[in-house]
Design goal:
5 strands, alpha+beta, flat, 3-stranded antiparallel beta sheet, Glutamine Phosphoribosylpyrophosphate, subunit 1, domain 1, 3 helices, two-stranded antiparallel sheet
Length: about 120
């Protein structure tokens, strides 16, 4: 079972308060037991990503795609990011349909289908 953490600073005055990566890392350290295999972080850095106001973290228990399934996962232009704990059972079908529509995948994980859908 994975563990997910996040911070979203919304509304004045919090929207201008930057998310600090060290805070997200400390949050993940508390849940290391939930995902001993990997950890990943996303801190928004551009206006399109919600600059300064969004931070995601994950502790991962690797089940599918042990080699390239590192999270957070993003779409082609890095405008959509996701961390996920779960399994998408029909991801092979969803991936094939997305590839037919021109989407490019960089992992073999089921989680990546989310950002392309």
């Amino acid at each position: 079972m994975c563990g997910i953490v996040g911070i979203y600073n919304f509304g004045p005055p919090q929207a201008d308060k930057p998310v600090e990566e060290n805070v997200v890392r400390r949050m993940c350290n508390v849940i290391t037991h939930r995902g001993p295999d990997d950890e990943g972080f996303f801190i928004a850095k551009s206006k399109e990503q919600g600059a300064k106001s969004v931070g995601l973290g994950i502790r991962r228990l690797a089940i599918i795609d042990l080699e390239t399934g590192h999270q957070p996962i993003h779409n082609e232009d890095e405008t959509i990011w996701v961390v996920s704990n779960g399994e998408i059972y029909n991801y092979h079908e969803l991936r094939a349909k997305s590839e037919e529509l021109g989407h490019k995948f960089y992992t073999k994980t089921d989680t990546e289908t989310i950002v392309h859908l």
